[in-house]
Amino acid sequence: MKQTKKKKTSKKIFLARKVNVQVLVALLALVLFAGLVFAFSSEHHPAATKKIIPKSSGNTAKKPLSPKPQPKVEPQNFLPYAGIRVPILMFHHIRDPKPIKDAIGRNLSVSPEKFKADLAWLNAHNYQAINIDDLPAIFSGKLRVTKKPVVITFDDGYEDNFIEAFPDLVAAGMIGNFNIITGAIGNPGYMTAGQLKAMERAGMEFGSHTVSHLDLATLTPVRQTEELMGSKTSLANLLGKEISSLCYPSGEYNALTIAIAKQCGYRLATTTKFGYADAKSSALELPRVRMTESSNFNSLFQK
Ligand SMILES: [Zn+2]
Predict the structure, then answer these.
(1) Ligand 1 centroid to residue 136 C-alpha, Å
(2) Average pLDDT over residues 14-32
(3) How far does residue 155's CA lie from ligand 1's centre (Å)?
(4) Per-domain residue ranges of the chain
(5) Contact 158, 93 (CB under 8 A)
(6) In angstroms, what is the span from residue 126 Cα to ligand 1's centroid?
(7) How many CB atoms lie under 10 A from the CB of residue 29?
(8) Does the pLDDT value for residue 45 go beyond 70?
(9) Which of the 8 DSSP states describes residue 64?
(10) Which CATH code fits 85-300?
(11) How far is the CA of 159 from the centre of ligand 1 (A)?
């Protein structure tokens, strides 16, 4: 009897084990099935597709997002941006003014020696030349700087800008913003398309100074649009980049010009009105500081 009981008990244990094994097999099968379903579905999941794109695909839009390398600058070294004022310097010719006979031409000329001394002064006084395109970000605090920002503009696109100013800017580690009359590119005394491209490759910035340097305030809306849009398109095609700044020829413009400039996609425009740009400046009426042979930064930047 005892033996039979034992047999019965062991049979029960065996059955219990058998049941456990069946449950285990069923569970394993379930896990395997779930795994297969997950693998199959993730193959068609956009997020998974994004992951398997090789980094060298060249398609930047589909690259997985990675944090941009941050400059090694401690936050406390940034200048306070609230109330920041940025001088936008206005140069024309960089050539010796002495032999120039006409008074206007002489007034628009700064000698190469004076120009070099100006750049040296800016460097010595902790100024950093920036792209004019960066102004809105600087005023809003989105772009923080460790040195005092300054914009160095050159109007008209004279050839001496390439011969004299460009090498000095590169040597001083500064960016120049060149406002180009697109109808004059390659004319005697003006920079050629090749020179502009070389400067662009070296990090210089370009703005539109219209097609033919006419007084915009006297033109019809159609002619103003032609001047603003034509120069923007030519420069963009030549340099392969968007042109977002405009400089009004001789500082002449009206309310209509501003509306057309906006419509043409200009974000910033400079005038010949004296002053320093700040967060309150109208983006399409930025004041500038005219530079001459007798300009003195010590008195100009005292205020
Ligand atoms: Zn001009």
Answers:
(1) 24
(2) 54
(3) 5
(4) 2-61, 85-300
(5) yes
(6) 29
(7) 10
(8) no
(9) P
(10) 3.20.20.370
(11) 14
